[in-house]
Amino acid sequence: MTPITRAPSPWRNVLPAVAAVLTACGGGGGSATAAPAPATPAAPAPAASAPAPSNSWSLVWSDEFDGAAGTVPSSANWNYDLGNAENGGWGNHEFQYYTSSARNAQLDGAGMLVISAEKAANPGPCWNGAQCLYTSARIHTSNKVNFTYGKVEARMKLPSGQGIWPAFWSLGQTGQWPASGEIDIMEFIGKTPTVTYGTAHGTGYSGAQGIGKPYEFGKPVADDFHTYTIIKRANEIIWQVDGVEFHRLTPASLPAGSPWVFEKPFFVILNLAVGGDWPGAPDATTPATAQMKVDWVRIYKEN
Question: Which of 64, 94, 118, 182 is catalytic?
């Protein structure tokens, strides 16, 4: 989503350990825009050496969304991004106004987080000077839950329709985009109903030049739940859908002279956009309410 884009319940109480197991949180504020870089950047760190992968994983954090119906996502885990015009249409000329209302992001009482994009009258100002057409939600874990390496995944059922744009993605906790780094674990747009996308962005390969691949389901994505995953190691990112690898990125994959910007803490973002430069504007066929259902989000360390 370029900004131009059931585990056992005891895991819910291990947040203080996440910083020790994954990485310390830092930078950032209430926005999913990464924190500004220092005025005098430090010299780049040498490339991390990559240990042999074990492909054995231990859960270190999860949100299973098991709360009572109508409650909002846990503030121990999630922050909200708000508005539209205040953030330039989120860089993509989108048509939703993000809120912190339970109407747009709430638990359903059956173990799901439901993010709803709803057609609304005068919800708030859009980038074009008009009132936005929809309300929705964009939540993120900046300064609460970060990961540098590990496996990050979510099980979700996506909405469909013209202009509908759900995403599960991640930004680097420090630095200004695109130098902060961005990893789009899953993006879906209604006009390609059988395909999701995994993409990486950094300096020299951002926006429309992001390095990504589609995953073809052969049937409508929105028909069922699927699990969307990245595995992040030193000098390597792997994308999977339902355990099947479809995209892999290493420093050798980058355009000549472009830096590898991913050896740092990242935070997780879930959002449901409507319209924008890539999916196109909503039209008369777009549902008045679109719902993105998230069964769980989990982060593992490699053993």
Answer: 182
The pLDDT tens digits for 195-239 are 999 999 999 999 999 999 999 999 999 999 999 999 999 999 999
> How many domains is the chain built from?
1
Which residue in the block uniquely carries the two structure tokens 């350990």?
Answer: 17
Please give the mean pLDDT across all residues of the chain: 87
187 catalytic? Reply is yes
Helix%, strand%, coil% for the chain, nearest 5? 10, 40, 50
Of the listed 118, 153, 187, 236, which one is catalytic? 187
Structural domain containing residue 215: 53-302
Instruction: Give strand ranges (E) for 73-190.
Output: 79-81, 96-98, 105-107, 113-119, 134-136, 138-140, 146-147, 150-157, 164-172, 182-187
Q: Which residue has the higher pLDDT, 34 or 15?
A: 34
Asked whether residue 14 is assigned to any structural domain, the reply reads no
- Examine the residue annotation and report whether 182 is marked as an active-site residue of this protein: yes
41 domain-assigned: no
The answer as to whether 126 is a domain residue is yes
The CATH number of the domain holding residue 198 is: 2.60.120.200
Q: Does residue 35 form part of some domain?
A: no
Q: What is the pTM of this model?
A: 0.85
Q: Per-residue pLDDT tens for 88-104?
A: 999 999 999 999 999 99
In DSSP terms, 296 is beta-bridged to 155
CA–CA dist 15, 9 (Å, integer): 12
